[in-house]
Amino acid sequence: MRIALFATCLADAMFPAAAIATVRLLERLGHRVEFPPGQTCCGQMHVNTGYLREAVPLVRNHVDAFTGFDAVVAPSGSCVGSVRHQHAMVARRAGDTGLAARAESVAAHTFELSEFLVDVLGVDDVGAYYPHRVTYHPTCHSLRMLGVGDKPLRLLRKVRGLTLVELPQAESCCGFGGTFALKNADVSTAMLEDKMANIATTGAAVCTAGDASCLMHIGGGLSRIGSGVRTVHLAEILAATS
To answer: Where is the signal peptide (predicted)?
Structure first.
């Protein structure tokens, strides 16, 4: 299967280990992975803050970059959610029905990593080994927009050496929400404090999730209070073998 890596802005600029781990994992499972060099921001930030017109060139560029692959895989629920639920809408609002049709075609075979592994490849044991106590935070976009359900948990349960600990009130938002954390800093911080308190009760050494944005928010908070809990992307755990 010819797979394109949709790296996302955060992975490209700040969390490259998540993108690298995604490639290593998929190649270990026997698939060819390519990085389309023309990819840029998918436009999610623009759309979420009301700049739909400005997002049109980004949607067009994304469609151009990812057309022709058997599958497009990203280590991000929020960016995949944008591709599936925003791109065609943005194109239609701009009156470009041709772009909307192409965006729908690309979106139809664009997947968040865990759903690609479980739903498309049909695997939940990827041969990973990660000897740590881990708790999982289900990110809002993956949970509510994509409906990935327990797929990340199914994958984590098959990781050798890993002790999975349930996170209390796991489905509560961590408080990031992109520009929400900037525009509503006090509320965002209060939500983060609740999330960190719940993480502390698990006794986990690692908090994992499928979105680097949430891990950045949670990890920053945990670092500031000196908790000692690390944040590690789901892809990095699944790619680990020693």
So the answer is: 1-19
